[in-house]
Amino acid sequence: MIALLSALAPPLIVSEWPVPPSPGDGMPVGTTTSDSSASLWDISRGDGLVRLTGTTYCLDAGVDPHNNVPSKIWTYYPGLTQQQWYYTDDNRIAITGGNQCLDEGPTGPQTYQCTGGNTNQIWYTWTGSGPTSTTSSSATGTSSSPSASSSPTTPVTQGVQLHPNGDNTKCLTVAYASAYDGQAVNIASCFAADPLAGTNYCLDAGVNPHDGVPAKIWTCYTGLFQQTWYYTDDNRIAITGGDSCLDVTLGSQPPSGSPYGSLENVQTWACTAYDTQQVWTE
């Protein structure tokens, strides 16, 4: 149970506004400078709900989330897209399945397109003694369970960001900021990059790596050919024992994504000398 603190002008705390005797469907969400009238929310990192503590009401983006839509609460319904949010490691609350973030607008909290460097979209948790980057209770969300015939392994390594051809504004990340077996890997703005270090997901080239195969992640398995890569001295990521490299798809367009839109797609392609689409820097 925590309150949410806006980075725009602390101490603005997300609350029901105006404060009623009890919450109800469609009730707007606003901000207040008073700790006593601030609402508490159940929220956790990653994909899940933003639930008004002690109730069945959740933050709801509406059936057609777009710029400048005022935020509200609504009764929780399992699997409802507009109630699924992703609380990122850089403290943004983004709609899972869309490209909108919770934004402190001129008239109060609203949805607005997720934008790098926009401090209106940064939200800290608040326990009453100061902002914190952790939460004390979990929101309910959906998850996928991996299945395989052998035991998965969790890599133990310190994570680094990987940038295409030295462009430090772009990062290799999992699509939709949602990790599960078979999820695509693409290029997105680094503020939106979803960390995978320390998880049990690995970059996977598929059972038959060849030109044009979209890159994805899969549960890590020790010794699996398609998950064993070699980071070369000339900054290429090549399949060990194969002839395919991780490659930015030439001419790929920025599709919409969740919670952020991607910029370019990633694939495997024959390792080619001097091909800058295959250069990856830390």
TrEMBL record:
Domain Ricin B lectin per the UniProt entry, residue ranges: 26-123, 199-281
Cleaved signal peptide residues: 1-15
InterPro entries the record matches: Ricin_B-like_lectins (IPR035992), Ricin_B_lectin (IPR000772)
SUPFAM superfamilies from the UniProt entry: Ricin B-like lectins
Keyword set, alphabetical order: Signal
Compositional bias ranges of the Low complexity kind: 133-155
Renumbered residue ranges of the record's region Disordered: 133-162
Protein name according to UniProt: Carbohydrate-binding module family 13 protein
Organism, scientific name: Calocera viscosa (strain TUFC12733)
